[in-house]
Design brief:
The protein is mainly α. The chain is built from 14 helices and 6 strands. A 4-stranded antiparallel sheet has the order 1-2-4-5. It has a two-stranded parallel sheet with strand order 3-6. β4 (337-340) and β5 (343-346) form a beta hairpin. α2 (40-61) packs antiparallel against α8 (193-215) and α4 runs antiparallel to α6 (130-153). The longest helix is centred in the first third of the chain and has 33 residues, at 2-34. The chain starts with a helix and ends with a strand.
């Protein structure tokens, strides 16, 4: 019974993130189409400023090794690169809508999933089982079903004038998203959520501010400012800030792969809202797509992945029925860890015994 509750909670947490992305998409749509405010960099800049005000200042008033200056002395260049990666991931995917079709963006954005899987395998030592890959395939099939429904109902597909450029931008953005998500998982598991968000806020606001001054200062002058536009910017910033603040919690509880699978439903939530707000045409394939993705999520979350913190456990995991291996060591052996859909459990009997 408890396992079932954990499974449902895992899926529910991911859907909260999808709803936040739905809010981001809806406010962006109103800003760009109704008020002709095409300011993706400025919108990201507002989010990074909020992260800076909340989390970077929190780090600044801390004492000891968790202080902002102490963190910068040890890892400033790593967080600088991560901040740039995060900024450009957001920018490339938004920019792609100007060149390619909505369906292409939806499908190619799924490229983030194999990127996260590969990076998790090689750098986080995550090991998957057959049921995980089955769940991933089912989720992607659900996404393909949604894209097919878009074509059948003639939903607005976008410009699609330079499709190759747009598709490459989506793939580039998805790759950067994958890198950012895996780094985020490593940081929140081994360091802290506040450190990650504080550093992203610091370097994100700095570099997005530079990009804003270079690329969008003219667009800002064209925005017909009034209370409605101001409210939309506030709504967008609130959803974006909530997404960034809550995502590390969900990633630590589940994994970067599980989170990206959960986010596949975000387009469907936007679509369901669009049925009432923008009078989109409905197709039963949308419901089929939604439930297919949820089935894939349940399959993926139903079984634990395995993480060998010590590389010496790796071969034993691949052959768990094999004999116990005695290995010399100069330090304390870190236990192998099983990550469930909701956190981690230290195994009672590690596979490797140290002589």
């Amino acid at each position: 019974m408890r396992r079932m509750k954990d499974l449902l909670l895992s899926v529910a947490l991911g859907q909260v993130l999808s709803l936040l992305i739905c809010g981001i998409g809806l406010t962006s749509k109103y800003l760009s189409e109704d008020f002709h405010a095409n300011t993706p960099v400025f919108q990201s800049f507002l989010n990074y400023i909020l992260l800076f005000l909340v989390y970077t200042t929190t780090l600044a008033v801390r004492q000891g090794e968790e202080n902002l200056l102490a963190i910068l002395k040890r890892r400033w260049w790593k967080y600088m690169i991560l901040g740039i990666v995060d900024i450009e991931a957001n920018y490339l995917v938004v920019k792609a809508y100007q060149y390619t079709t909505l369906t292409s963006v939806q499908l190619l954005d799924c490229f983030v999933i194999p990127v996260v899987i590969l990076l998790s395998w090689f750098f986080l030592l995550v090991r998957y089982k057959a049921v995980h890959f089955i769940g991933i395939v089912v989720c992607i099939l659900g996404m393909g079903c949604m894209a097919g429904a878009d074509v059948l109902v003639g939903r607005q597909q976008g410009a699609g004038e330079n499709k190759l450029i747009g598709d490459l931008l989506v793939l580039g953005g998805a790759t950067l998203y994958g890198i950012s998500n895996v780094c985020e998982e490593y940081i929140v598991r081994n360091l802290s959520r506040v450190e990650f968000l504080g550093m992203i806020g610091l370097f994100g606001s700095f570099f997005s501010g530079i990009q804003l001054a270079i690329m969008e200062h003219k667009e800002l002058l064209k925005v017909p400012w009034d209370w409605q536009i101001g409210l939309l910017y506030v709504g967008f910033s609130a959803c974006m800030f909530g997404l960034y603040s809550f995502m590390p919690v969900v990633i630590k509880k589940t994994s970067a792969t599980a989170v990206n699978l959960s986010l596949l439903t975000a387009d469907l939530y936007s679509l369901f809202c669009g049925l009432f707000l923008f009078h989109y045409k409905f197709s039963g394939l949308y419901l089929l797509s939604f439930f297919t993705i949820l089935v894939g999520l349940v399959l993926y979350s139903s079984t634990s992945t395995y993480v060998a913190q010590d590389p010496r456990v790796y071969k034993q995991f691949r052959n768990p029925s094999g004999p116990v291996v005695d290995l010399p060591t100069t330090g304390q052996l870190e236990p192998s860890v099983t990550y469930t859909s909701l956190g981690q459990e230290t195994e009672e009997e590690p596979h490797v015994r140290v002589a």
